[in-house]
Amino acid sequence: MNELFRPISALRGVGEKRAKAYARLGIQTPYDLLFHIPRSYLDFRNPEPVLSAPLDTPCVVEGCITRKLPEQRIRKGLSVFKATATDGESDFTVVFYNNFYAFDALKVGETYRFAGKLTGTLLRREIHSPQYLRADCPVLMKPVYPLTNGLTNPMVQANMRQALELLRREPFDGLPSGIRRQYDLCTLPEALGVVHQPASEPILQEAKRRLAFDALLQLQLGMLMLRNRSRAQTAYTMDPDTDLTPFYASLPFAPTNAQKRSIAEICGDLCRTVPANRLLQGDVGSGKTAVAAAACYFTCKNGFQSALMAPTEILATQHYHTLEGFLSPLGIRVGLLTGSLPAKEKRRIRTALQAGELDVLVGTHALIQKDTVFPALGLVITDEQHRFGVGQRAALAQKGGTPHKLVMSATPIPRTLALIVYGDLDISVLDELPVGRLPIRTYAVTGKLRQRAYGFVRSRMDAGEQAYIVCPMIEEGESDLLAVTSYAEQLRAGAFAAYRVGLLHGKMKPAEKEQVMASFKAGELDLLVCTTVVEVGVDVPNATVMLIENSERFGLSQLHQLRGRVGRGSKQSHCILITDSTSEESRERLRVLSSTTDGFRIAEEDLKLRGPGDFFGSAQHGLPPVHLAELAEDMELVRQTQQAARDILEADPQLRDPVNHALRADVVRLYARNGENGLN
Questions:
Q1: Residues 192-219 pLDDT 10s
Q2: CA separation (Å) from 215 to 37, 163, 519?
Q3: Global pTM value
Q4: What are the backbone dihedrals phi and psi of residue 102, each rounded to the nearest 5 degrees, phi first?
Q5: What are the transmembrane regions (predicted)?
Q6: Any idea which architecture 245-430 has in CATH?
Q7: Domain 45-136, what architecture?
């Protein structure tokens, strides 16, 4: 087994350059490589006759090589290699560009299967730069791997064969045999062998089920171990008789039943001797910040401090103003600490905090720095937690005394995914919107109606309202999509020349973003052209129109988040989705969004359409490669792994038993890879 855990450079053909490429994919050893799962497969099993195969469409054809032609040098730096082949009825030409090795490997008289696009006419057909294998190859499903610069699919396939050979020589399985038998799972060597060299679809599904079980089990074990570790005594047990009447009396609105229920659940947690560990999940505009304010009030009345950490300065500032509005009239002192504050102001805030002169501190990552000292931190609140990376969930809570933890998320998460990502948390859900909120009207249109959409935006601004226009790209050259900077200039000079147009994107300095948002909120701008930096946390009740360009580029949940930036007041709001995509997936996505404003239903549909790997975008959310499991339909697998994790830890809480050593090593590796600390 030692060979599996040597540096990846121990494999033939892996020099320094290729090892660095593998490192970018998180692959350091042959063992890591074995878990680099194919993203898809080229299926060579059912070739089509050349005459009936569709032109300019991916297909597989079979042919015997009859002749190899001399190399053609078209121009400097470009060589073309051609071979003729026949399927017994029709001839065709196989063409390679600057790829002598692929051409040279073809042998006259041998029969191969080629995957690619056929071009040409009825009488003369060609297949360009195909992937191919011998027709008598025992494995006719060829894996296609996620790649990075410096790696090709054939390179990974060749190295994978070596890694599989090492595994065959030293069979290894970290899952206790009793668990494997209980849940009717194949062995790890069998699963890995099949997933990289599948012979048939049913066997492949069994292999994927085993690997998905392992990935989910490791995540559940880590979550439970973190949770059990945090079940130590907290220094901040609070009084259940703490009176919330003054807080409720000061609210400028009547709280929803869901808000009152969530506040009761959270405050009940705060009164226990073990630290609270709760997720507050609510759709856009459901009033999570008011619930957080109630928890901070409850904590302060018990003599302890609270901290609220947000992923961006815009969101932190928003929370600061909202919490100050709720709590300052009640005598609770609220502060703001962000990275862009002047050094002198940071020192003043930290000094006041350490002296106990602040009851609530709102901020960004600045809160978890060592020189931010809380003398009595009773409650830690993190907002949009999945944007931080799992490692930071623990960092703020390590400020001493084992404080209570509350995680807030405005991203509705399907129940399946919530159980996985937040398996160590109790969950409260805000499933009601405040009274008086009107559903946002949503329209999906093509670019042909862009000018009419602009006219509608102008009409709302003429009525004294404000609007957003969102683009997915930031700079020219990123793609052929509209770049937000040049697009904003076009709008200022054209369709919206008579209006005050602002620009906001993620590459601006924090102070610039704050200034633009402050101007928009103050009504000094009519239209804000922006990227998804406005997705979370910006609250401008007078903004009633959200127009989203290239809407097919966003996930359903992200579109729903963007839509939630309007509809914050009592006026009717509108969301216009512009797309020229004709794909079935795009149409289905926009149909779902136009038909409902229920974020949880949208999240379920998003999971089905995109899968869990893309659900949170590129954020470091800590999910292992559970794309192996079709989670939208595989609650049973989640349930099984949760039960297995409980059974294993009940018998061996720290996985110290020799039978669990390999399992523990996998759990530690998973959490180390995602930045979690302390599981060692």
A1: 999 999 988 889 989 988 988 988 888 8
A2: 12, 20, 47
A3: 0.63
A4: -65, -40
A5: none
A6: 3-Layer(aba) Sandwich (3.40)
A7: Beta Barrel (2.40)
